[in-house]
Amino acid sequence: MMFRRAAVLVLLLVLAGCGEPPMLGQTDPLFDRQKMTADFQPIADRVAPGQLGVAVEDLGTGQIISFNGERRFPLQAVFTAPLGAAVMAEVEAKRLRLDDILLIEDVDLSPPPSGVADLWAGPMTYSVQDLLERAIRDGDNTAADVLMKRIGGPGAVTAWLQGRKVNALDIDRYQRQLQPDSLGLASFRADWKGEAAYRAALDKVPPAERRRAIRAYLADPRDTATPLGALRFLEAVNQAELLGPDSRRLLGRIISQTRGGAGRLRAAVPEGGRLNHIPATARTDLGFTPVVNDIGVYTLKDGRKFAVVAFISGSPLPVAEQEKAIADVGRVVIKAAK
Question: Can you say whether the dihedral through the CA atoms of 216, 288, 284, 252 is positive or negative?
Fold first, then answer.
């Protein structure tokens, strides 16, 4: 667990869609560290022998609480949020335009989920903005990889984050590399596009090899973040450290359209509140879903905002039970905020 106060006011809250100074009476610490630790522990026990990681920030006071906050967890689709921010930074720098047209050929296709790959029947073109929306809103791996390549690759995104003091959030591989690696598959090929073809290719890999691959993936420090690192990203976006107003508004609008994850942090939204978030789930194979995540920002009815990161890795529970655990993390936060 970790506690911090910061004497800085939030200038803009992208993921919540607006930015305001703290509410009156909200400049002092709110969270009870010991109580929240006690409340997170039974949730962690439920997902064992998997690991639960949590980081929470009161964006009005800068107070931070974490649970396994410095442990590394796989990102999965959470990476699309920093990717989107990096793309918008390139637009601001005038090295890229949202209406630029990018060509997608067979060598650019990536594993499911990918509506772009599913529709591919030959060279196709998409605008940068269309690909950005598909990558974040739909978790489209082809769209994400094409954008990643256009702005310099995974290393360029990580370097951009680190240059803005967003550390412990590392993007190292394209999804066309990461996803097959994590399941024991060879490098992705175009004739595996679509769920049925990809599933058929996966079924040819012996179960023992698939289990070894997923264990290696869970132990791999690449393409991971600590809960505190992911929280720092949310903080940097909301404090206007990464993007200008127009870019923040567009990124916030796209994130607000993100699909899925209704049973996670969203399930804890109180009456009159709202949540903008990025859920992420690894592929279920051999009855095991190794990663279930959610990050986002709650805005309460009274205007207060709380950034929340909830990561689960290596849990044998079904997805629905892991989602309930994340929802309970959200409930702990909302209860502590009352």
Answer: negative
pLDDT at residue 286 tops 70: yes
Domains and CATH numbers, the chain: 1-74+227-338 (3.40.710.10)
Q: What is the pTM of this model?
A: 0.90
Characterise 149 by phi-psi region: left (phi > 0), alpha (psi -120 to 50), beta (else). alpha
Cα distance between residue 195 and residue 197, in whole Å: 6
Paired tokens of 247? 């870019």
Our CA angle for 284, 290, 294, nearest 5°, is 100
DSSP state letters, 123-160: -EEEEHHHHHHHHHHH--HHHHHHHHHHTT-HHHHHHH
List pLDDT tens digits, range 247-285.
999 999 999 999 899 999 999 999 999 999 999 999 999
Structure tokens at 11: 């200038």
> What confidence tier does 27 reach under pLDDT thresholds 50, 70, 90?
low
